[in-house]
Structure formats: structure tokens, C-alpha cells
Amino acid sequence: MVADAAEPPRERLLIALDVDGTILLEDETYSPGVVDAIADAQRAGHEVMLATGRSWESTRHIIVHLALTPEYVVCSNGAVILKRAGAGESPAYERFHTEQFDATEVLTLLRDHLPSARYMVELPSGRRLFTHHMDDWSLARADRVTFEELSAQPVSRVVVVSEEDTDEDFVDLVSRIGLNEVSYAVGWSAWLDIAPQGVDKATGLELVRAWLGIEAKDVVVIGDGRNDIGMFRWARGHGGRAIAMAQGPDEVRSEASESTASVTEGGVTAVLKAL
Q1: Is this prediction's pTM over 0.85?
Q2: What CA–CA distance (Å, rounded) separates 262 from 22?
Q3: What is the DSSP letter of 157?
Q4: Within 10 Å of residue 224's Cβ, how many Cβ atoms?
Q5: Closest CA to 130 of 51, 239, 61, 138
Q6: Tens digits of per-residue pLDDT, 90-123?
Q7: Residue pLDDT, tens place only, 138-181
Q8: Which phi and psi angles does 184 have, rounded to 5°?
Q9: How far is the CA of 251 from the CAs of 5, 132, 136, 248, in angstroms?
Q10: What distance in Å separates the CA atoms of residue 207 and residue 216, rounded to the nearest whole number?
Q11: DSSP assignment of 34-64, as one string?
Q12: Using an 8 Å Cβ cutoff, are 228 and 18 in contact?
């Protein structure tokens, strides 16, 4: 017997969605059908949230457009967790949990190998500092500073953008120089995201799961990038579902428990409608 859509689900799922390449296309438009599919999943009683490498400043408008009202949002690849403040259709969010580290050594090492790259850091307060303009990054609440000022205080993450390099170049660089005291993720375009050691989307999501009291087996994560590998392993390791988008790199899809169609073909929509 099929349950009525208005009835509470037999099990409340924690559904964590990556943003770029998962619900958003490269031109910032939404994957086919994903807005309605997310709305249906929320109405069914599931906790649908975002787990993204983006800062909160670059994520807020997506939450609004999707009419999402999760209790928590994982940003900056797990280094920042926002908590809903208040109720209603457009609740406010406040910084609830942040990780931080001294980025001096990492920044110096990277500049030695990537002298022409553009650098940005995110402070625990949410303020960001950057050395040069970044065309594809929102610079709201961001200030241009000298390279030396980037590491004047602890940061939540470091972002490195190099137009001269590919994502494969970044993977090779990390392998050659070793970033042993931090966690890193290579984006779906040519950028490198660095967080405190041991911090990634999985660590942020595990905190959220525990706070919400949702069983680990009732977790569904969907993503497409190398920064999603950690949450794939976390979900699979605890009996949940780890779903990779079809267009993701081989090394990402191999870490998932299953796959769905590409972002252009509405892969997330297909998963949510089949719940």
C-alpha cells in the first residue's frame, strides 16, 4: 500500500545536498525539477539541507530560492555550520559552529608553488580576505588585503584559485608538496579549498545528525565533487546512502554506494521523487 503524500514518513531522512554540480548548473541555473522535488521532500517530513564548499554569503540566496528551512546548513566544506534562528518561510541563520587554524605555513608553502594564484581566507566571523579579485566568487563581506595579512589571525579555510591550472594540476600539486596538517578539497573547476585538519563535509554532517537525533542509516547524501568523497565514505560507513552525480570524476563516483543522472538531466530530482 502506498502511503499518502500528506502522511508523515515512516522514517525521517536527513538529506544533504551538495550545491555546485548537484543542484546548480555551471551557469547558476537549477537542475531540472529540483526546486519542486526539494519542496515535496520537505513536505513529506524529511530534513533537507545543503552541505557545500561555498561560504554562507554565497549560499544564503540558494536557501531562499529553494524555500529551504533546514535546522542547519553546512558551509565552507564543514568548517562552518549555520543554525536556523526563528521560524517562518524565510528564517534567519546564525553562525553556530566554526573550525579554525593557523594558515601561515600552508599559505607560504602554496605561494612558493603558485606565486601567481589568487588567495582568499574565511575568518571564523564570516568575514573574508582576498588578495586579488575572483570573478566566479561572491566577495560580499570581503576585503582586499596583502598576502601577509591573510594569516594575521586564525582562519576557517583557505581558498586558492589559479586560472593557469586545472583540477588535475591541483591534485598533482597536493600530492607533490603534501598538506599534512590540513584537509583539502579540489573543486569542480580550478580551485583548492583548505580546511583545518580532519574537517570536511562529513565532520559537519555528523555533528548535525547527532544534534537532530537522526539515525545514521537514515542519511542520504548527494554530490559530484572531490570535496564530497568524505561525506560519501561517512554515509556508506554507517549504513546510509551515498549518491554520486553521473558527471562526477571516476574517483568520486567510485566512493558512492550508487549513482544518479547528471545535474543537467535532473539527477537529484530523480532520487528525491523515488524516496
Answers
A1: yes
A2: 8
A3: E
A4: 28
A5: 138
A6: 789 999 999 999 999 889 988 988 888 899 999 9
A7: 777 789 999 999 999 999 999 988 877 777 777 788 778 777 65
A8: -135, 155
A9: 37, 32, 25, 8
A10: 11
A11: HHHHHHHHHHTT-EEEEB-SS-GGGTHHHHH
A12: yes
Q: What nine digits make up the cell of 161?
A: 584559485
d(CA 275, CA 269): 10
Residue pair 123/155 in contact by the 8 Å Cβ criterion: yes
CA atoms within 13 A on the CB side of 189: 15
Q: Which cell goes with 102?
A: 593557523
Report residue 192 as a C-alpha cell.
583548492
Cell of 148: 601577509
For residue 29, give the C-alpha cell: 541555473
Sheet with 182-186, strands from edge to edge, namely 142-144, 128-130, 118-122, 157-161, 191-196, 182-186
